[in-house]
From TrEMBL:
<dbReference type="Pfam" id="PF01230">
    <property type="entry name" value="HIT"/>
</dbReference>
<dbReference type="GO" id="GO:0008168">
    <property type="term" value="F:methyltransferase activity"/>
</dbReference>
<dbReference type="InterPro" id="IPR011146">
    <property type="entry name" value="HIT-like"/>
</dbReference>
<dbReference type="InterPro" id="IPR036265">
    <property type="entry name" value="HIT-like_sf"/>
</dbReference>
<dbReference type="InterPro" id="IPR001310">
    <property type="entry name" value="Histidine_triad_HIT"/>
</dbReference>
<feature type="domain" description="HIT">
    <location>
        <begin position="5"/>
        <end position="113"/>
    </location>
</feature>
<keyword id="KW-0489">Methyltransferase</keyword>
<protein>
    <submittedName>
        <fullName>HIT family protein</fullName>
        <ecNumber>2.1.1.-</ecNumber>
    </submittedName>
</protein>
<dbReference type="InterPro" id="IPR019808">
    <property type="entry name" value="Histidine_triad_CS"/>
</dbReference>
<keyword id="KW-0808">Transferase</keyword>
<feature type="short sequence motif" description="Histidine triad motif">
    <location>
        <begin position="97"/>
        <end position="101"/>
    </location>
</feature>
<dbReference type="InterPro" id="IPR039384">
    <property type="entry name" value="HINT"/>
</dbReference>
<dbReference type="GO" id="GO:0032259">
    <property type="term" value="P:methylation"/>
</dbReference>
Length: 119
């Protein structure tokens, strides 16, 4: 998709900091990190959201997820990690190429409260 910023990140026309890549997926640092090490995992195939995702794309995407979680763990030593995916503008999606957020968590120090966290 020519007007998609994440397709441009995959083809290299928009620079990014690579975390992981294989033939099906690309992972890179979020440019506005919610916490240190905030990473996005995307399929190389342009898929708008989870509703539109073919099963094979889902399989390849989630096959890479533990590798990215462990790369983040090794690099940043967080105490925990949230994965999160917004589908549709109403749910907070702002880039319409599917992406899975990896948000490392650092005890009290990360200052982040996700909207299902009450304490
Ligand atoms: P969403 O709100 O769609 O779930 O998340 C989009 C994410 O993409 C945001 O966290 C935002 O910071 C990130 N983002 C938007 N544009 C760029 C970009 O050009 N480069 C990178 N690395 N991240 C981006
Ligand atoms: Zn795209």
């Amino acid at each position: 998709m020519s007007d998609c910023i994440f397709c441009k990140i995959i083809d290299g026309s928009i620079p990014s900091t690579k975390v992981y890549e294989d033939e099906n997926v690309y992972a890179f640092m979020d440019v506005f990190p919610l916490t240190k090490g905030h990473t996005l995992l995307i399929p190389k195939q342009h898929v708008q959201d989870l509703f539109e995702m073919p099963e094979e794309v889902a399989r390849n995407l989630y096959a890479a997820a533990p590798k990215i979680a462990n790369a983040i763990k090794a690099a940043f030593q967080p105490q925990g990690l949230n994965t999160l995916n917004n589908n549709g503008a109403f749910a907070g999606q702002s880039v319409f190429h599917y992406h899975l957020h990896f948000i490392p968590r650092y005890d009290e120090t990360d200052g982040l409260k996700l909207n299902w966290e009450t304490k």
